[in-house]
Amino acid sequence: MREERGRGQGMMKIHDKIDLEKIREEGLKKLFPKETKISVGMATCGLSTGADKVYETLLKEVGRLKLPFQVGQTGCIGFCQREPVLDILTPGRPRIFYQEVTPEKAIELVHRWDKEEVVKDWLFFKMEGEEWIGEDKWFDYSIQTDLKGLDGTPSYQQVPFYQKQLKIALRNCGFINPDHIEEYIARGGYFALGKALLEMKPEEIIEEVKRSGLRGRGGAGFPTGSKWESCRRVKGDQKFVLCNADEGDPGAYMDRSVLEGDPHSVIEGMIIGAYAIGAHEGFIYVRDEYPLAIQKLQVAVRQAEEFGLLGDNILGSGFSFRIHLFRGGGAFVCGESTALMASIEGKVGEPRAKHIHTTESGLWEKPSNLNNVETWNNVPVIISRGSEWYSKIGTDKSKGTKVFSIVGKVNNTGLIEVPMGITLREIVYEIGGGIPDGKKFKAVQTGGPSGGCIPESLLDLPVDFDRLTEVGSMMGSGGMIVMDESTCMVDVAKYFMNFLKDESCGKCTSCREGTKRMHEILTEISEGRGKPEHIPLLEELGWVTAEASLCQLGGTAPNPVLSTIRYFREEYEEHILNKRCPAKVCRALLKYRILPETCTMCGRCAKVCPADAITGKRKTKKEEGIPFKIDEEKCIKCGMCFDTCKFNAIEVQ
Amino acid sequence: MLSFTIDGQPVEGKEGQNVLEVALDAGFDIPHLCYNENVKPYGACRLCLVEISRKGRSRLTTSCNYPVMEGLEVFTSSDKVLRARRMVMELLLARCPGSKLLQEMAKEMGVEEVRFKKEDKDCILCGLCARVCEEVVGANAIQFAFRGDRRDIGPPFMEEPKDCIACGACVTICPVDVIGMKEEGDERTILRWNRTLKMKPCKVCGNYFAPWFQLEKFKEKAKLPKDFFEICYTCRS
Fold first, then answer.
1. Residue B89 and residue B20 share a domain
2. Per-residue CA distances from A625 to A563, A615, A620 (Å)
3. How far is B141 from chain A (nearest CA, A)?
């Protein structure tokens, strides 16, 4: 701390590990202040449910009452469904988390907390301490006062949603203010960088990452250490490390949450990787649709520069490295490595042939090493805890944990991080809490639009890279969509194919025309014009699209079609042969009928029918009615009558 | 020289050459549409697919952009290759059913019917026009636009291309012959791009021989005598 930068406390260059320890002290004071601290989860999931209003209200109320409370912000703690989440931390008391907080509730909570009371109904869970996984430490809150009304409130570890989780990638999300580098450092951040730069040779780092078994979290699962090694071995005066933050799968937002809640973890991983590879410049390619992530990254990069963790002679090691942010223009295909590089170069984001690897000739034809957000974020923990520890987590060939966003027809939705090898059943039923409304599970879709649908018979499948590929799906970046019996698999395939035909770059005939034609055939099937020969045609077309296309967008595009045919062929056949949609989703195949014996002749259905397809006569006190009937020719299958009828007199077939 | 085999037959290629080049020179018949030796290979049409086996691993890939390497084993008509190539052909024909060339190629490959809804497009999006315009002419007047099934090729915003010199390179290179050119009086029009330019008469014979705009552009680039562009090609030789 030799250089004062004059921008408030803590803005000083870190020259060595001693400085890092000093900043840690600063950070600890921010993380665990002497007075009460209220933190509001303000990642995108929180903001979308009104966390900003809660935050503002809290600030005003605390100011108005002149309470000795600090109000701060943090990232997402994973259970996005329960947002806005806030937690209250007072020295000597358990940390209390509240869920689904509104501004009104927030005011009430503050008043009650001032009187040492909790509001039981809104409680989420409590914490007696927290784990700092990077350093294998348990930070105990040293509880002295037990609060009234807390009995029966589960601890964090007792909440079924969290019980089976192991947080490495999400280690800091929800615990630090992402805008404060000191808080990241306090929880062990940048100490791995110190170890790497000052105590390890580049080759040793690569060896450590190789031995950890870490594989690329962007979806392909390529061994990270090997990638680094081949990039290091290439001769070249200029090399690049890149971070892929172009997360575009529908329903997947793991990387967003990491960037919003813990941006420094990614930066630290990149610096370590750059040192190991011999690169001095890095790019983070982040999609423009993530404004908050971009903002957090901007702040984090600037802070890292101000603290001397980016720039020249980092931590006195002699190593220099800089990071640039690059905002993507909204094309899904730019998540593909060569398209991403083309995009940074200012060209159209289109993949090119990779007969020469990008580790040899990538960005501006220089050796380039691209890893995804979650991969980079894992690196500091591997360095600080060691490969031996890391490689004990997971399965034989897939090590560590994986973050998934579990969404769809499941009781608990949000971001989860689980050790590789956990079964889908555990994820869906224990963490996810099963299927809502007593409905039956049908399939879980993993791997985003290029992934596949896995049926109930395979629910005991351990989740890892290879097992998911074996069953015709893939790990992908971590989207996980749960589907119940009311989901039509033809419709699901059609949905994803619609996405892919739009997002294919359009270069290869096989991908551009292939996805378009698959979508076209699926539309035919879902609208009652399916033919028996459509199934083999889809299979053939799927095979060719995968085999003949240049990049992995085309290479995996048929997965939604092929996996649904593989596991739900009879559903396709129902659509084609009997013109029936068993899940009652494909509108053109539905038949609405009014059951004359149940119809009370109230006439509500006829009133709401926009197509005037329902006729009959309303029964009144004076007159006899005529049961209502739907004219199939006129019916547009909108379902308004079905939704309106209070007597279950309308049947859908 | 790099030695490898194509369908079992030994061949040799130079460093920097691609498999298709060597195969065509050696007399192998690999259908292709988006490949032209005057521009960089692009790999869009996917017709020149071959199966390449290297270090014990075999996969389908386009031969036009696969660099020759020592010890490659290339198969131009394995079952896999034919199966994939026929489907690609069928997809192209479904897109442009009116193309005589595509009809003939399809027939030769044994593609007898099109099982998809026929569209009425004429462009196969091979990108040769844009590539020749950029790499050979240097005008950069046309490019790909949009993505996915909306992909198209043309001038910026599909308006009259202000950089087009109406040289006609795109007209000549288009494999499916859908970029027309018309000369009437002192005007030349590239029909597909709606680009019309006034032409210059030859000082000797008086015939209109090239657009003024084009000759101005050439003058900027070429270091030639001042009156070089006053006389038409025929009178000059």
1. yes
2. 51, 11, 7
3. 16
* N-to-C CA span, chain A: 74
Q: What is d(CA B91, CA B119) in angstroms, rounded to the nearest whole number? A: 10
Contact A513 B146 (CB under 8 A): no
Give the per-residue pLDDT at A551. Answer: 95
pLDDT in tens, B6-45: 999 999 999 999 999 999 999 999 999 999 999 999 999 9
In a domain, B103, yes or no: no
CATH topology of domain A401-484: Ubiquitin-like (UB roll) (3.10.20)
Measure CB to CB from residue A548 to each of B88, B95, B143 and give the nearest one.
B88
- Could you tell me where the DSSP H helices lie in B54-144? 79-95, 100-109, 128-131
Q: What percent of the residues of chain A are helix, what percent strand, and what percent coil, each to the nearest 5?
A: 45, 20, 40
Is A520 an 8 Å CB contact of chain B?
Answer: yes
CA angle A276–A278–A282, rounded 5-degree value? 95
DSSP three-state, residue A39? strand
Bridging pattern class, strands A626-630 and B9-13:
unpaired
Distance CA A262, CA A608 (A): 51
A360 touches chain B (CB under 8 A): no
Spatial contact of A496 and A581, defined as CB atoms under 8 Å apart: no
Per-residue confidence band for A70, with pLDDT thresholds at 50, 70 and 90:
very high
pLDDT at A6 over 60: no
At residue A11, the pLDDT reads: 56
B113 interface with A at CB cutoff 8 Å: no
Q: Which residues of A touch B143 (CB under 8 A)?
A: 348
Q: Which DSSP helix (H) or strand (E) runs through A401?
A: strand A401-408
- In this prediction, residue A12 carries a pLDDT of 75
Binding-face residues of B in 25-64 toward A, CB within 8 A: 42-47, 49, 60-62
- Report the Cα A495 to chain-centroid distance in Å: 20
Contacts B146 to A, Cβ<8 Å: 506
Rounded (10°) angle between helices B79-95 and B100-109: 150
Residue A584 pairs in a beta bridge with none
Q: Which domain holds residue B157?
A: 128-236
The CB density around residue A330, as the number of other CB atoms within 10 Å, is 13
Which superfamily does A26-155 belong to? Glutaredoxin (3.40.30.10)
> 3-state class of B37 per DSSP?
coil
| Residue A512: its H or E element | helix A509-526
The DSSP output letter for B116 is S
Residue A412 C-alpha from the chain's centroid: 14
CA distance A578 to A526: 12
pLDDT, tens only, A529-583:
999 999 999 999 999 999 999 999 999 999 999 999 999 999 999 999 999 999 9
Contact A515 B43 (CB under 8 A): no
Cα B15 to Cα A385: distance, rounded to the nearest angstrom: 47
**Predicted model pTM:** 0.92
Same domain? B148 vs B211: yes
The string of pLDDT tens digits covering residues B52-74 is: 999 889 999 999 999 999 999 99
**What ipTM is given for this predicted complex?**
0.95
Contacts of range B205-210, beta carbons closer than 8 Å, 24 or more positions apart: B205/B232, B205/B234, B205/B235, B207/B232, B207/B234, B208/B183, B209/B233, B209/B234
pLDDT at A141 over 80: yes
Interface test with A, best of B40, B113, B147, B150 (most A CBs within 10 A): B147
- As a whole number, the mean pLDDT across chain B is 95
Q: Which amino acid is at A155?
A: S
The residues near A606 (Cβ < 8 Å, ≥ 6 apart) are A614, A615, A616, A618, A628
Q: Of B67, B93, B119, which residue is a domain's last?
A: B93
Q: How far apart are CA B56 and CA B52, in angstroms?
A: 10
Number of C-beta neighbours around residue B31 at 10 A? 17
Do A550 and B43 lie within an 8 Å CB cutoff? Answer: yes
